[in-house]
Automatic annotation (TrEMBL):
GO terms for biological process: fatty acid biosynthetic process. Transmembrane segments: none annotated. It comes from the Bacteria. Keywords: Hydrolase, Lipid biosynthesis, Lipid metabolism. InterPro entries: ACP_PD. The keyword Hydrolase applies. GO terms for molecular function: [acyl-carrier-protein] phosphodiesterase activity. This is DUF479 domain-containing protein. Pfam families: ACP_PD.
Length: 196
C-alpha cells in the first residue's frame, strides 16, 4: 500500500504516522536516532509491506498487471489500493479526507527537522498537489501514476495503468475490501506487539 494507507493504519499518533510515511526513505536498521514513536512507525511500515507483498489477494491483483508492468506491478497495486481507500474513505474514517490530509501535512511541517532528507524534498510536491486527497478520483490517481512514471524516466509505463484499473475496477474494489479487513486485523496485532 502507498502513503494514505500507511498513514491511516498508523492510528492517531503523529510521530508513528510520520515514521510509517517516511520509512521507504530510510535504508537499513540504524533508526535509533529517530524519536521512539517514529522508530515504531518505521517498523510498522516494514511489517505492513511484508504482509502486503505475501498476501494472496494482493498477489492476485498484481498478476493482472504483470504482463504490462513487470516488477512495477506491486507499486501500481499499492497506488490502486490507496485510490480505493480514498474513494471509500467514509467507510473507514469519520474525518473527511481533505481535512485528514491537511492535518497530516501540518504534522509534517511541525516535525520537519526529524524528517529524512528525501522525505523533506518530496513533501513539497505531496502538499502542493495534495496527493492524499487526489487519490480519491480516477483522474487524481492517474495524475499521480503519471508523476511516478516520470520519476522512472518513463521506464515503468505507469501512466497507462489507469486503463487496467478501470477495466477491472469491480474486481479490484471487492478484493481491496477483503484485503483491507485482513490488514486492519494484522496491524492491530502488530501495534500491540510494538507498544503503539
Amino acid at each position: 500500500m502507498n502513503f494514505l494507507a500507511h498513514i491511516y493504519l498508523s492510528g492517531d499518533n503523529d510521530l508513528v504516522k510520520i515514521g510509517n510515511f517516511m520509512a521507504d526513505a530510510i535504508q537499513g536498521n540504524k533508526i535509533d536516532h529517530f524519536p521512539p514513536n517514529v522508530q515504531k512507525g518505521i517498523l510498522l511500515h516494514r511489517a505492513i509491506d511484508s504482509h502486503t507483498d505475501a498476501h494472496p489477494i494482493f498477489r492476485q491483483g498484481t498478476k493482472r498487471l504483470h504482463k504490462h508492468y513487470h516488477h512495477y506491478s506491486g507499486v501500481i497495486m499499492d497506488m490502486f489500493y490507496d485510490h480505493l481507500l480514498a474513494k471509500n474513505w467514509n467507510r473507514y474514517c469519520n474525518m473527511p479526507l481533505p481535512q485528514y490530509a491537511a492535518a497530516f501535512y501540518k504534522s509534517l511541517d511541525d516535525n520537519y527537522d526529524i524528517l529524512a532528507p528525501r522525505t523533506q524534498r518530496m513533501m513539497v510536491h505531496l502538499k502542493k498537489e495534495d496527493w492524499l486527497s487526489k487519490y480519491a478520483t480516477i483522474e487524481g490517481i492517474s495524475f499521480i501514476l503519471m508523476q511516478m512514471d516520470y520519476r522512472t524516466k518513463h521506464k515503468s509505463g505507469m501512466t497507462n495503468a489507469g486503463v487496467q484499473l478501470q477495466e477491472y475496477y469491480t474486481e479490484y474494489e471487492q478484493e481491496f475490501f477483503a484485503f483491507f479487513e485482513d490488514m486492519q486485523k494484522f496491524v492491530t496485532d502488530k501495534k500491540t506487539e510494538l507498544g503503539i
